[in-house]
Specification:
The chain is an alpha+beta fold. The chain has 18 helices and 18 strands. The protein is globular, with a radius of gyration of 23 Å. The structure holds flavin-adenine dinucleotide. The site of flavin-adenine dinucleotide has 38 residues, from helix 2, strand 8 and strand 16.
Length: 556
């Protein structure tokens, strides 16, 4: 197996771009979200020569802005989307097996209240069907709790209208890290993936078929031309922008809805379990405890603004704060309690007469007369299956054009980078061992849990580097993480590191404020930034910190 992992070192960018320009790829993927990275892995592991380009950072689009659940989508059952629930339900267990440190069990509490979305019988039956469709077995199957037992599990639900609850299995992840591990695994299988390369337009061969792309290198504004036999457009919310450039935007089109999540300190909403609860307008939202915070989401509103700049507005924050205060009587959150947030766009397929929440989350593939293959819709959870479906189309095209039959997909058995654990117990054992190694330096369980959840087995590389340093403080551990990101994960900006590689912008924003100066200095040194670039990066980071925690009044 030919690997191209060395290109994941940030300083190897010149070689990476040279390889992109001088190779005639079998398949070029546009978009480094979960969909594009999943396709690159599937195609590369079938032996194709694969390139992937992403206009910003990997996962910087919707794939770092989801609810971060690998879930079957209980609410889709209410809309009788049986096939979708069955497929994504089953995918949960597969993705968990491929990265057990990163896709972890998360039990959900579904309170049953008078006048709520689900009654007792419907909850019990619905959750049972959900388990059956997803093939959930043994201890993980749903249990129904009485009112008393519910309050034992979650005392914050103390209210007269509480009747009981359902307790069922889902999985939690970090969407950006999942995307990056899939990308790195694709590179391990020979794919050539580059961030900060934007496709400007398409090249067409003599017969009018798409045969390549013209791009801009967003780090230095240079131009790049890439050739490929087949081009897949996996650009998420930008899918239609590219279809338009191919002159093939007709028939079905995207319908974008905005989803916002808020982060509050755990003590402001001290939940023991993730809770999926009712909002007075008939929707349901999640509140999920994670490390030292709880996050809440999501909204679902039609979006007509700038798709390159999606932010949390005051009314989004107020909606979620009101929803929490309405459901948890002893909690009185206020918008100023929110310490971070994120806002993303769902690239859904337009359906006449349906509201944002009613539109199906199914994915669809469009094959243009010029041969551009586009995919839109879908979910993080279903990325592997979406990649298989795209590869069915690509395989058919290759068979038709060249008479070659591609091997079957095998991503079901390809463990993601860092995920080589036998089971959950092995993850726990590894965490304990990391915790022991950190104890002499005044650190322990919390740091070990964070590192293993983020990097899995790759934590050993970070710890080894950390132990080789002259000083061994918490900051040195953070610098060891940065060293890893620079050498193995293609970071080019401070936000790449603080957001998509470490999740700190959302889950530990205070640590950014504390350590940003040192991290920026280290990055400037390692990546040979000019003083202007250093200043620009510092400014961009300030804007990201401000936007995550301040919410302007919107137009609607
Ligand atoms: P993206 O992640 O947006 O990736 C597309 C990429 O293409 C972008 O990074 C973009 O920069 C790049 N691009 C665009 N144009 C160009 C160009 N010209 N050249 C190069 N690159 C380009 N799913 C779940 O399974 N579980 C959940 O809990 C969940 N919660 C969600 C909550 C919210 C609020 C939202 C919005 C979605 C949620 N989803 C969830 C759905 C899931 O997040 C998305 O389906 C998924 O992330 C989409 O990934 P993608 O790769 O298709 O798009």
């Amino acid at each position: 197996m030919k690997t191209n992992q060395t290109y994941c070192a940030s300083l190897n960018r010149d070689k990476l771009l040279h390889h992109l320009e001088t190779t005639h790829f079998d398949l070029l993927v546009i978009g480094g979200g979960i969909t594009g990275c999943g396709i690159a892995l599937d195609a590369a592991s079938r032996g194709l020569k694969v390139g992937l380009v992403e206009k910003n950072d990997f996962a910087s689009g919707t794939s770092s802005r989801s609810t971060k659940l690998i879930h079957g989508g209980l609410r889709y059952l209410k809309q009788f989307e049986i096939v979708l629930v069955r497929e994504v339900g089953r995918e949960r267990a597969i993705v968990h097996r491929l990265a057990p440190h990163l896709v972890v069990n998360e039990k959900m509490l579904l309170p049953i209240v008078e006048g709520g979305t689900f009654g007792k019988i419907l909850t019990s039956f619905g959750l049972m069907v959900y388990d059956v469709l997803a093939g959930v077995e043994g201890e993980d199957q749903r249990v129904m709790f009485s009112r008393e037992r519910t309050l034992q599990e979650e005392s914050l639900l103390e209210m007269d209208i509480l009747k009981g609850s359902g307790f069922y299995a889902e999985y939690r992840t970090d969407d950006a890290r999942l995307t990056i591990e899939v990308m790195k695994t694709a590179c391990e299988h020979g794919a050539v993936c580059a961030n900060y390369i934007e496709v400007d337009d398409f090249q067409y061969n003599a017969s009018g078929r798409v045969g390549g792309v013209n791009c801009t290198n967003k780090l230095d504004e240079g131009k790049i031309s890439i050739k490929a036999d087949y081009v897949v457009n996996a650009a998420g919310p930008w899918v239609d922008t590219l279809r338009k450039k191919d002159d093939s935007l007709n028939g079905k089109h995207l319908y974008l809805t905005k989803g916002v999540h808020l982060v509050v300190p755990h003590e402001k909403l001290p939940l023991k379990h993730a809770v999926y609860f009712d909002v007075p307008d008939g929707r349901m939202i999640f509140a999920i405890p994670r490390q030292q915070v709880t996050y809440i989401g999501t909204t679902d509103t039609e979006y007509k603004g700038d798709i390159n700049h999606v932010i949390t507005e005051h009314q989004d924050a107020q909606y979620l704060v009101d929803a929490v205060n309405n459901f948890f009587p002893s909690i009185s959150l206020a918008v100023p309690d929110v310490i971070s947030s994120w806002a993303g766009l769902r690239p859904l397929i337009h359906e006449e007469g349906k509201s944002a929440s009613e539109i199906s989350r199914k994915d669809e593939i469009f094959l243009s007369p010029n041969g551009l293959i586009s995919i839109a819709g879908g979910k993080l959870t279903g990325y592997r299956k979406m990649a298989e479906r795209i590869m069915e189309v690509v395989s058919k095209e290759i068979k038709k054009d060249k008479g070659i039959r591609l091997p079957e997909g095998r991503t079901k058995g390809i463990v993601l980078m860092g995920g080589a654990y036998e089971n959950d117990k092995a993850v726990k054992k590894h965490t304990e061992s990391i915790s022991k190694q950190l104890m002499p330096f005044g650190m322990g369980q919390a740091e070990a849990e964070y590192l293993v959840a983020n990097y899995g087995k790759q934590t050993d590389i970070i710890i080894k580097h950390f132990l080789e340093q002259a000083t061994t403080t918490y900051l040195d551990l953070l610098l060891a993480e940065l060293w890893f990101a620079l050498n193995y994960e293609m970071v080019h900006t401070a936000q790449d590191f603080f957001n998509r590689r470490t999740g700190r912008l959302y889950f530990d924003i205070g640590s950014i404020r504390k350590y940003k100066k040192t991290i920026l200095q280290e990055m400037a040194l390692a990546l040979h930034w000019s003083p202007e670039r250093h200043q620009q990066e510092a400014g961009a980071l300030e804007i990201a910190l401000h936007e995550a925690s301040h919410f302007p009044e919107g137009e609607s």
